[in-house]
Amino acid sequence: MRFLLVTFLTALLNLTLSASHFVGGEITWECDKDPASPNYGRYTFYLTIYQDCDGINFYYGTCAEDLTVHNLPGLTSICMNFLDTNDISSSGVAGSEPCYNCDNQPNNQFGAIREWIYMSDPITLNGVPPAAGWHFTWGSCCRSSNLTQGMNDDDWTIRSVMYPYTDPVT
Question: What pTM, to 2 d.p., does this model score?
């Protein structure tokens, strides 16, 4: 019994908590409409995450994040490759110190914002979305503890829906 208690306490003391400090985000896509392109008719998805800079870093590299696909038979996820990250914090008044800065902020100052951009390889989506649409989601844990509009420390999900559409030009 004593061994179990010591093991439990050791595991508890070594527990690392990490929060993403998610502020917002979006999932978008583009369809390649150029008949001369090798990717004609394929879709490229984009995931943009906005984060309070005092959170943990998101992932870099190939297949760094995955979109979950709902209601599209034969496709359950889309691999998202890291593309770029940018400090998009307010810059303040010209000639003055920046209001916020993700890379040089004192004591992880709340309010500086970083954007994380991911892009999929071009993919083919077979069929036509049903009336309820195909849903694309991505989420994680946790929103910042410093948020004042509610849902602080909660898990979160970004969702985008592709509905059936016929382009009147093509």
Answer: 0.76
